[in-house]
């Protein structure tokens, strides 16, 4: 089978590598540098499993910036382009998905199935099919972690496809065939599949926000937050997973997906979804106030990435803390070896760890790492359990 995958970020590249083990896959991207890296069998994202498979050759995979070349003869076109949240319109910016879908209809064979893997608003896929005069566009949500994207495709928690006909069954079969672990397959309507993605991520954000607010209470009242969280989590209905406090939920997905779900609730009564969105800003305000109260001369921000194993800076929670304390006049230095620029939001970028430690009397770390152990007495973190 010939498959085209548009977009080689975390979602697209992991799907391309997954399916290229059994099929011919052409990855399409507008970034020529990413395409060149992939054709040289180097991963343009941080993912150890992807890097390992690429190093082995993976002859079924090629990359291009030419849409006609990628889509000509394709049996399936997977769309995995970014859909960032646009606060001006109060919805995802879906223009790239719409453009790729239109090109796929024009360039791919008439029988080709088009599958959206990008996260979209509820109702988007049906509306796009109607506007483009087709019924060949499906939606299939992804459930991946940055840095573990291929692993999560090889060992999926579930496979969901928004469609119940032969094309949806065939695409679900492609994903199941490539996986190393069995997973329950759910075929449903496109709107239900779109809702599954947004509600799943909002629940994860809710859980993060809940334990962060527990931690805020413990900090404010002088309680041992670790003991309280452990005691709460020992109830098997709650569990001891996904409970480590942080500076707030961040990364690319949770902030935008919670806001999009809230926008989808425009005509539906709700309290909880808005609270999940607002709780994240409240947590950042609280953490920033605690840092300002310490009156540091210079604060060091250790890494801009959201979590270990990721190279993504987008919407990481530590950036929100950084902006708040800078607004109070506290100078900030950023340690981020992956950043080539000399400054980040008008703060100097230091790539020498020893010099960074020497220059800053307080260091912020969303997650504690061994390289900070020697200055642990100067590190401000809410990492209580050593994990994401």
Question: Could you provide a short overview of the structure?
Answer:
With 388 residues, this protein is of the alpha/beta class. It contains 14 helices and 16 strands.
What does this structure look like?
- With 388 residues, this protein is an alpha/beta fold.
- It folds into two domains: 2-188, 3-Layer(aba) Sandwich (Rossmann fold); 198-380, 3-Layer(aba) Sandwich (Rossmann fold), CATH 3.40.50.
- The protein contains 14 helices and 16 strands.
- The protein has helices at 10-20, 32-39, 48-55, 67-71, 95-107, 124-132, 149-154, 166-178, 190-221, 225-233, 253-264, 272-293, 317-327, 353-359, and strands at residues 2-6, 24-28, 61-64, 76-79, 85-86, 91-92, 113-116, 137-139, 159-162, 185-188, 299-302, 332-335, 343-344, 347-350, 362-364, 379-380.
- Helix 9 (190-221) crosses helix 10 and helix 12 crosses helix 13 (317-327).
- It is globular and about 65 Å long.
- The chain starts with a strand and ends in an 8-residue tail after the last strand.
């Amino acid at each position: 089978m010939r498959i085209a995958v548009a977009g080689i970020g975390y979602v697209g590249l992991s799907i391309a590598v997954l399916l290229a083990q059994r099929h011919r896959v052409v990855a399409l991207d507008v970034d020529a540098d990413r395409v060149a890296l992939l054709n040289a069998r180097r991963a343009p994202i941080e993912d150890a499993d992807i890097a390992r498979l690429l190093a082995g050759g993976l002859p079924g995979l090629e990359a291009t910036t030419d849409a006609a070349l990628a889509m000509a003869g394709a049996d399936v076109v997977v769309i995995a382009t970014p859909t960032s949240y646009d606060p001006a319109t109060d919805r995802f910016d879906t223009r790239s998905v719409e453009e790729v879908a239109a090109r796929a209809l024009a360039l791919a064979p008439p029988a080709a199935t088009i599958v959206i893997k990008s996260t979209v608003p509820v109702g988007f896929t049906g509306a796009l099919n109607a506007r483009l005069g087709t019924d060949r566009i499906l939606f299939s949500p992804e459930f991946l972690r940055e840095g573990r994207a291929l692993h999560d495709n090889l060992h999926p928690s579930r496979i969901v496809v928004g469609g119940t006909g032969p094309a949806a069954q065939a695409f679900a079969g492609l994903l199941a065939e490539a996986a190393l672990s069995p997973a329950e397959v759910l075929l449903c309507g496109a709107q239900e599949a779109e809702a599954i993605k947004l509600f799943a991520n909002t629940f994860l954000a809710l859980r993060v926000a809940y334990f962060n607010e527990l931690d805020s209470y413990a900090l404010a009242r002088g309680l041992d937050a670790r003991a309280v969280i452990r005691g709460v989590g020992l109830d098997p209905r709650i569990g001891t997973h996904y409970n480590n406090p942080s500076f707030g939920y961040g990364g690319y997905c949770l902030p935008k997906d919670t806001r999009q779900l809230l926008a989808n609730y425009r005509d539906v009564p709700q309290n909880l979804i808005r609270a999940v969105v607002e709780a994240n800003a409240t947590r950042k305000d609280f953490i920033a106030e605690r840092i300002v109260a310490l009156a540091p001369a210079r604060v060091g921000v250790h890494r801009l990435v959201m979590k270990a194993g990721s190279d993504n800076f987008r919407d990481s929670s530590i950036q929100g803390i950084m902006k708040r304390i800078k607004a109070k006049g506290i100078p900030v230095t950023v340690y981020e070896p992956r950043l080539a620029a000399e400054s980040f939001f008008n703060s100097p970028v230091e790539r020498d760890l020893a010099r960074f430690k020497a220059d800053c009397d307080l260091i912020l770390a969303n997650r504690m790492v061994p390289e900070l152990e020697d200055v642990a007495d100067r590190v401000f973190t809410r990492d209580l359990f050593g994990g994401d």
